[in-house]
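ok so dumb question maybe but i'm new to this and my supervisor (M.) told me to 'just get the structure for Imidazolonepropionase' and walked off. so i did the thing. is this what she meant?? sequence i used:
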Amino acid sequence: MSTTLITGISELVTMDPAHGPAPSAATRPHLGVIERAAIVVDNDAVLWSGPQSTAPDADEHVDLGGRAVIPGFVDSHTHIVFAGDRSREFEARMAGDPYDGGGIATTMAATRDADEPTLAANARSLLTEMHEQGTTTVEIKSGYGLSVADEVRMLRAAATLTPETTFLGAHVVPPEYRDDRAAYVDLVSGPMLDACAPYVRWADVFCEPGAPTAFDADESRAVLTAAGKAGLGLRVHAGQLGPGPGVALGVELGAASVDHCTHLTDADITMLAEAAPDGPVATLLPGVEFSTRSPYPQARRLLDAGVLVALATDCNPGSSFTSSMPFCIALAVRDMGMTAAEALWAATEGGARALRRTDVGNLRPGSRPHLCVLDAPSYRHLPYRPGVPIASTLEL
Ligand code: NIG
Ligand code: FE
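this is what came out, is it supposed to look like this??
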């Protein structure tokens, strides 16, 4: 297998404890930064990194002319398999309508009407958009089919695009079950889970007792417990619309991640801190707060309490139709009090932890050779140059 030496790297972020200066307040967590660096990769793995002056030979050579290289972004929460358009819903929201998840039914109807190749093609084009902006690992959820056949179709399409697939049959109660929620929870925890399990690694629930169509603690526990018994890892949409039992449930059931965390109680933060670092990662999705005009999550309190934080796009047609991890980093720094280093860690290593992966989100030897190159000298330019497409995946 041929090897490639990449030089001309002004700043290489490895996330490797073996590299870089001791972290200061501004650069904590430890990013493993090497200045004037080089890296050697083959098709499967990072082989070596270090100062360019000590670089070994390789079969091929690429010079980046003084640009920064970081690990490819890990977008650990997306809903990119869907059909239809909800730009008018967004327009109405900007004119004052609240976001309550009611539009999920609009996407469900359009998704049920679309054939599987169309669903796969829609998702593939969003995946390409993500890849072009430096994202190299993407989690994809179902949740717009909400029948056995339609959830299977969504997940079969998703599984052609990523190994990080998530069953979200418990997204909302579909209209045909509105008068019999218990029957829908039984369907999701039984026949729908059985049919979807071959295509997924994870299961998720929209746990939101204040929203009439989402799921309360008991309903969510029933679905997640069944999914756990089926061998799936667990994730929770928690505290998006208001404070609720989602975080506590995620901690109780050993979920890999609790996502949104827009509304957290003091007890939620204490629980997450006590469960860290092996308990759920708090995955923050600031594109949602931006696109729904909600208050941003208390990232600073989570970080100061020692909770592991990830950043993801939540790319979906309703609450956050962005595919851009750099945009989320910019929001996290501008509006959530995270340092550039914390936001970069959360968008790479943090996402990997939320997916319980050690081979992505970092550039340590043996990890996947997923490189994101910045048209800038430093990762600090990610929040400094908002909206400017400086990040791209390095194709070798
Ligand atoms: O993560 N909260 C539930 N699900 C998605 C939004 C889905 C939609 O509005 O279509 C979310 O925000
Ligand atoms: Fe979501």
